[in-house]
Amino acid sequence: MSRIASVFSQSGRKALIPYITVGYPTIEATLKVVPLLAQNGADIVELGIPFSDPLADGVTIQRSSFHALKNGVSPQLCLDVAKKLREKVDIPLVFMTYYNPVFHYGLEPFCSACVGAGIDGLIIPDLPPQEGGSLEAIARKKDIDLIYLLAPTSTEERIKLVAERSRGFIYLVSVTGVTGARDRLPADWEVFVSRVKELVSQPLCVGFGISTPSQAKRVARLADGVIVGSRIIQLMESGDIQPVGEFIKGLREALD
Amino acid sequence: MLPDNRGYFGDFGGRFVPETLMPVLNELEIAYKEARADSTFWAEFEALSRDYSGRPTPLYLAEKLTRHCGGARIFLKREDLAHTGAHKINNALGQGLLARRMGKRRIIAETGAGQHGVATAAVCAMLDLDCIVYMGEQDIRRQSLNVFRMKLMGAEVRPVSSGSQTLKDAINEAIRDWVTNARDTYYLLGSVVGPHPYPMMVRDFQSVIGQETRQQIVEKVGRLPDYIIACVGGGSNAMGIFYPFLDDREVKLIGVEAAGKGLDTGRHAASLVAGRVGVLHGAKSYILQDSHGQISETHSISAGLDYPGVGPEHSYLKNTGRAAYVAVNDKEALEGFQLLGRTDGIVPALEPAHAIFYAATMASSLDKEQLIVVNLSGRGDKDMGIVAEELGVKL
After folding, report:
1. Which among B15, B16, B180, B307 is the top mutation candidate for probing chain A, defined by the most A β-carbons within 10 Å of its own β-carbon?
2. Which of B11, B25, B75, B147 has the fewest beta carbons closer than 10 A?
3. Is residue A136 annotated as a catalytic residue, yes or no?
4. Which domain holds residue A251?
């Protein structure tokens, strides 16, 4: 069982998965905040490798990505940061990025470097299963989980395809839209999650637009985990990471 | 026939998009397949191409340019005479009809130079569809005339302030809108780029340029041309004129990219000449990127060529050697721009001015029996402000 899969084998516990952009607002902040996330109840951390053209992201993560890129954050630097974090925390770490930086690094070298850095999984929103075959084959050999996504527009056929191919868990995009904190959950999210649940047995984690403990609690009634990103990025803007710790703690309490 | 059923031209193309869009692209592909096989769809496309867009556009022997160069005869395919002033209307019309057929009334588009935005705004007005055009703030400044034209035809122009504020960022923003409104919105993409089926679909609608050229040159000269030359940003006008000639090996195809301030300055937009294979906006193709796989900021005097990617079919034609790709810089494009005005009284857009410059240079070195066709993809009215500024003229 992969480290990610074992997160979901603890009965009753809902997985809390925060996202941060590596190097936002600084590398030091990233190195400090991940242990803080782990201490306060995060089960998996998503480390965002910034990309110049993040077309699945809303303004908050666009801004953190551009800021990090300006600070010189590269995929190699993210690997170095992950390696340092691996020495500090035991929870699974997954990279979230777009396909071009990975393709440019080289699929095999990138996966090898991920293994060296203690990365457990990859989430690549612009890489659907139809295009993911090559990376998937390499990742599987190296025991890295390639996590695919589903969206409210996904048909039954696609749900089955992703269920067959995704490893670790399935990332459910709660809304037709980009990432970003929203006041309320989309109207049809429950219909969507239930529809997927009927067809698959893998753990389902819901992300996009979840930004409060009460939203997280509602989502976790149906899903196996919640992913929270933009709200954390907003809290990190000042460079003071303490509010992030409090926020995660609040989410953890809501989920338990 | 290419692309294959996964949307690949050899190693290039595909469908690298967020999951939300995958079912939408499947739906689009099926709708297009049905339309493609439906003769009534093409009958309407052809009737409107004739009565609305003004097709066929003429093939004109540029006698004075030919004499000036003193070599090969140069013919111009006059897409500048098409309605809204560029070849973009062909694709906007085709996709507009497809959107209406699919029952999608909200149309979004991106634009660089504004020509695709103007064409889309016109077609939406005519077909009674809602139209939203995303345009980079830098492009809005340098192509303000086209912004005004779009608004006059009822389109909403949404400024894009992220990244380099040019075409690349306008496409990002259009895709974000599309992901958000996937169910009821039709994305009317303006070039042979993007995920499958766009590169194929846009090529098909634009290939009317090459079909007409073929018939016209045979009527006029009795044979096919030796060279076809077209500018390449995303590559739709080039693909449109190249496509019907792909099997005619004796016809040499040359795409002209923007060398901007010079290929060695890094400030250019020559993806095929100087790029590396990567994935941008849903397709694998040649892309300008840095050593970490981040997409480069590009530069060209012409907003329509100022794009770090290129259509996947061009990447395929480059790798197979069927087409050759070269680059012409800002200064040379400005020369081409002025040259054609002086010789033949035709002011080209800055985009095809790149192709004019290359063709003129090349013609001089060829003998008089040789034939060159240049795709004059658009007219230069929109560029008066920029050119005046470059030449130090106050309007």
Report:
1. B16
2. B11
3. no
4. 3-255
Polymer length in residues for chain A: 256
Q: How many CB atoms lie within 10 A of CB A184?
A: 9
| Cis status, amide bond into B18, omega within 30 of 0 | no
Query: pLDDT (tens digit, 9 = 90+) per residue, B227-243?
Result: 999 999 999 999 999 99
Which CATH number is A149's domain given? 3.20.20.70
Query: CB pairs below 8 Å between A and B: how many?
Result: 114
CA distance A148 to A169: 8
Q: Is the peptide bond before A128 cis (omega within 30 degrees of 0)?
A: no
- Residue of B18, B183, B276 with shortest CB distance to A126: B18
> What's the whole-model pTM score?
0.97
Backbone φ, ψ for residue A90 (5° rounding): -100, -20
Instruction: From chain A, pick out residues whose CB is under 8 angstroms from the CB of B175.
Output: 55
Q: Six-digit token pair at A70?
A: 């300006």
Pairing of strands B252-260, B227-231: parallel
Beta strands in B210-354 (DSSP E): 227-231, 252-260, 276-280, 283-287, 323-329
**pLDDT band for position B164 (cuts 50, 70, 90):** confident
pLDDT at B166 exceeding the cut of 90: no
Q: Is residue A92 within 8 Å of A7, Cβ to Cβ?
A: yes
In degrees and rounded to multiples of 5, residue A179 shows phi and psi of: -65, 155
A127 interface with B at CB cutoff 8 Å = yes
B43 touches chain A (CB under 8 A): no
Which residue do the tokens 């649940």 mark?
Answer: A197
Q: What is the predicted ipTM?
A: 0.96
Annotated active-site residue in A28, A43, A46, A157: A46
Q: What's the first-to-final CA gap in chain A, in angstroms? A: 24
Is B278 in a helix, a strand, or coil?
strand
Structure tokens at A249: 């703690």
Q: Does A132 touch chain B (CB under 8 A)?
A: no
Over the stretch A76-129, which tens digit does the pLDDT of each residue have? Answer: 999 999 999 999 999 999 999 999 999 999 999 999 999 999 999 999 999 999
CB B51 within 8 A of CB B44: no
**pLDDT one-digit tens code per residue, B342-390:** 999 999 999 999 999 999 999 999 999 999 999 999 999 999 999 999 9
Q: What is the pLDDT of residues B183-203, one digit of tens each?
A: 899 999 999 999 999 999 999
Tokens 């996590």 found at: A147
Amino acid of residue A9: S
Written as one letter, the residue type at B392 is: G
Q: What is the pLDDT of residue B165?
A: 87
Å between B24 CA and nearest CA of chain A:
8
Asked if the model's pLDDT at residue A143 lies above 90, the reply is yes
Of B202, B201, B151, B142, nearest in space to B330 by CA? B142
- On whether any CB of chain B is under 8 Å from the CB of A103, the answer is yes
Angle in degrees, CA B342, B343, B349, rounded to 5: 65
Catalytic residue selected from B29, B110, B173, B332: B110
How many domains would you assign to chain A?
A: 1
Contact B236, B202 (CB under 8 A): yes
